[in-house]
Amino acid sequence: MSTLLNKSDIEAYERDGYVRIRGFFDASELEPLLAAYREDPSVRGSLYGMMDRDGAPHPICIWTELADDIIGLVPRMERMVNATEALLTEPCYHWHSKITVKPPGCVALIDWHQDFASWYDDGVPFPKLVTVGIAVEPATRENGCLQLVPGSHLIGKMDYLDTDNFERRLENAQKTLGLVHCEMNAGDAVFFHCNTLHGSASNNSDTSRLMLFVSYNAVSNEPIPDAQGANEDGQFMNISAEDRLSKPLERVSDDVLRRKQFKSAFNHTAFKKPVTDLGDTFQQAVELP
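Now predict its structure.
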């Protein structure tokens, strides 16, 4: 199991805007989370649908406060924080985390986007944010693995509200830079820059794809007071300006999961309830059946 980023990992991240680390977690560390999800696939009724551009709901749930369950401990584990700070080259804090699920036959896409487009509207001055995607189950082309455009973080923030030009620039980026299907085994992790173009396709298989995404911001990059925008892509998450402020990360040891020092898988986390009554130009969220 690899828990540290080496020089070539950091160089790959700086060049490509992402780096995939095989075996960052041992699959056995994540098995209690997977078992809890299979026993309660609604995640305590907290999963809701984030609508894609065609109106299909993609199941997700989001949180900002870190409890002493598995999904609250993972963002505080030394390997997670140390690796992120190696990429940022400075201290970080927890921005938010989310579970995303693609059940078998899920037709919903994650439309192509840059995270910074939304987070800029949260008031952060610089693109100093990193997301870590952790495969709780295998992620394959067939079940809708994460896709990225390598090197697209160097393009800068694209104007996603100018739909036609965004699509033209996305097509050009994919043509000139390529596209990576980020297939992963359970326990693998991918670290990606907040300006890296990414998305995912439908699940055309009979297996589910469960991912845990943890996002961090540099402490020096705390949102500017009263500099928030409309955030049409992120308003549905119901994350307040106070939630976005820097809070000290109480790190936990890397053996916390192996020693089973957690209170539950996800029963102690306070999930965010989505905003479901936003205007037509906003990203929409819906309750799942």
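The longest helix spans residues 163-177.
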